[in-house]
């Protein structure tokens, strides 16, 4: 791609670093911004900078939050003894959208994946296990996607907390295998949360 402006080229280059954005799309977006009022680009860059500077990880559940503790952990209406274990913040949003769940979450920040060099210590597993050890949990609901990595992660956590005799469950695998949780429709996902099954029953022995 030949550019008449080095500055434009730099903007396209930066934009094309985003996932799913190739050079052509990046150019289209950049040219779009060039045609819009300057304020739009200003607002966009400010929003992005503020997000990077001010969004925090909740000290309790690792969810993204504007304050030290997220609004779910801070809510007096939630059942604090039930914790749903999810991969990332999109899963929290998907489950919250179902309005079928009143417990708290624990966001791992990924799943164990030796192929990608992600081990248990790269994830927020220890804080979760500590919550169980401190007796703060009655039930742990595993809601990772039904992939090999998801299963491995569930099992790893299960082994760590097995001796503490808390209830463990998993959302019913009605969600087609391999589909990420975030893509499940709300009704199916809501039903899965309500009709969750004992974790042991999900183990392929
Ligand atoms: Zn939280």
Automatic annotation (TrEMBL):
Protein name: Recombination protein RecR
Top-rank taxon, per record: Bacteria
Classification via PROSITE patterns: RECR, TOPRIM
Toprim domain sequence ranges: 81-176
SMART domains assigned to the protein according to its UniProt record, in alphabetical order: TOPRIM
Organism: Gaetbulibacter aestuarii
Chain intervals annotated as zinc finger (C4-type): 58-73
NCBIfam families: recR
Keywords, ordered alphabetically: DNA damage, DNA recombination, DNA repair, Metal-binding, Zinc, Zinc-finger
Stated role: May play a role in DNA repair. It seems to be involved in an RecBC-independent recombinational process of DNA repair. It may act with RecF and RecO.
């Amino acid at each position: 791609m030949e550019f008449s402006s080095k500055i434009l080229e730099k903007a396209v280059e930066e934009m094309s670093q985003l996932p799913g954005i190739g050079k052509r799309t990046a150019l289209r977006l950049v040219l779009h911004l060039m045609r819009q009022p300057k304020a739009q680009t200003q607002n966009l860059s400010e929003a992005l900078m503020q997000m990077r500077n001010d969004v925090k990880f909740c000290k309790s559940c690792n969810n993204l939050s504007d304050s030290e503790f997220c609004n779910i952990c801070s809510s007096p209406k939630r059942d604090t003894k039930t914790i749903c274990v999810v991969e990332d913040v999109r899963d929290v949003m998907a489950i919250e959208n179902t309005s079928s769940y009143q417990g708290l979450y624990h966001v791992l920040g990924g799943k164990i994946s030796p192929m990608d060099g992600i081990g248990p210590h790269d994830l927020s597993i220890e804080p979760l296990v500590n919550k169980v050890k401190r007796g703060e949990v009655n039930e742990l609901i595993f809601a990772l996607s039904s992939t090999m990595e998801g299963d491995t992660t569930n099992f790893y956590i299960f082994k760590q907390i097995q001796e503490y005799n808390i209830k463990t469950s998993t959302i019913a695998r009605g969600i087609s295998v391999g589909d990420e949780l975030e893509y499940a429709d709300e009704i199916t996902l809501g039903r899965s949360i309500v009709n969750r099954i004992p974790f042991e029953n999900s183990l392929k022995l």
